[in-house]
Amino acid sequence: MCICISFSTLRRITEISACIMCILGVFAIIFGGVLLGQNKKVTSDSANFIAASFGIMLGLGFILLLVGALGLLAWKKRNNCLLGIYIVCLCIVVACSAIVFGVSAGAYQIVQDSKDDTNCQKKDFLIYSRKVYEKAQTVFCSKDCMCQVKQSYLNPNTISSWNWSETQGKVKSQDCPTFNQSIDFTIPSDIGNLSDLTKLLGYVETSFDCSGFCSKQPIYYFSNSYKGQPTKDCKLELLNFLDTSLLSLANGGLAVLIISIIGCVCSCSLICHKHKREGNPYYDDEYEMPNIKTNKYR
Predict the structure, then answer these.
(1) Rounded mean pLDDT of 199-215?
(2) Which SS3 state, helix, strand or coil, does residue 263 take?
(3) Whether the predicted pLDDT of 132 surpasses 90
(4) pTM (2 decimals)?
(5) Among 6, 82, 89, 248, which is least packed by CB within 10 angstroms?
(6) Where are the bilayer-spanning segments (predicted)?
(7) Domain ranges within the chain, ordered by starting residue
């Protein structure tokens, strides 16, 4: 694993790669912490996986920071034992970052394919989200389920046939007694059950100010119909968010992968470099300090 680069250059690359690792760790901590803080207001169980994702990013940031700090400590202390531990940690980071890059790149491609599904008829999640919205439209604000809405937000022609009130009624379609009974299809297990899906749709409505999949709806069906009028299509907003997030994650994973490989190769090369095998000092100042232990490097 040794490479033909001067010993001083290897030392410098090892130091720089460790510094970059620390910087990437700090960035991940800040980014994950900010996003996690923004999502604390969400109480829906379906949002837990999003909070968990940001929490994982926060944890990975701390790991990168610790690994980078270990590399700098090994570089500063000139200790081969610390350098060996650093190399092992880098190998683990290489494996993890490769997995992150591969998974996020694959998911990014799925999102791109989903964007082309303009009628929500190809991908299971889009299909069943659209179907659940269609059922909500037939049940919510019907004679069997009065809804609570603000008249000022809605077109009079839209609500002329609705069973609605500004002071009473349900604010979520899933709270209607007949909603579950209206579902005449089976939701695939990889999406979850009906309760999971409606909670997720409610979270998406709240987060992106939207309602409907592959169509814009006049009210929020799964979050709070009384809070106002949505302006966007949830399918487009959700996929755009995932597009940006997954692309950033893939780029971040690739950056960590490259830096980790460079750091690992250079650190291994420090140990087996010809400069060391010939018994030369690791530092220029070792010519003036011959009593420095021989297991030091730089």
Answers:
(1) 91
(2) helix
(3) yes
(4) 0.74
(5) 6
(6) 16-37, 49-75, 82-108, 246-272
(7) 7-117+247-287, 124-237
Cα separations (Å) of 67 from 16, 86, 153, 222, 245?
13, 7, 54, 44, 25
Nearest to 249 by CA among 41, 99, 101: 101
User: Does the structure show a pLDDT above 70 at 208?
Assistant: yes
The CA distances from residue 65 to 95, 99, 147, 250, 259, in Å, are 17, 19, 51, 19, 13
Rounded Cα–Cα distance for residues 225 and 172 (Å): 7
Q: Are 164 and 101 in contact (CB under 8 A)?
A: no
Task: Tell me the Ramachandran region of residue 176: left when phi exceeds 0, alpha when psi lies from -120 to 50, beta otherwise.
Answer: beta
Instruction: Write the DSSP string, 265-292.
Output: HHHHHHHH-HHHHTT--SSGGGGT-TTS
Helix (H, G, I), strand (E, B) or coil at 165: strand
| Tokens 């799925």, located at residue | 110
Cβ proximity of 115 and 237 under 8 Å: no
Cα(167)–Cα(163) distance, integer angstroms: 12
Closest CA relative to residue 2, chosen from 291, 282, 296, 267: 267
In the 8-state DSSP scheme, what is residue 187?
P
CA distance 98 to 91: 11
Question: In the predicted model, what is the mean pLDDT of residues 85-94?
Answer: 91
Range with lowest mean pLDDT among 26-30, 40-44, 73-77, 159-163: 40-44
Q: Nearest Cα to 97, choosing from 53, 50, 61? A: 61
Here the tokens at position 281 are 């000092």
Residue 146 identity:
M
Q: How far apart are CA 94 and CA 243, in angstroms?
A: 24
Q: What are residue 222's phi and psi, to 5 degrees?
A: -120, 5
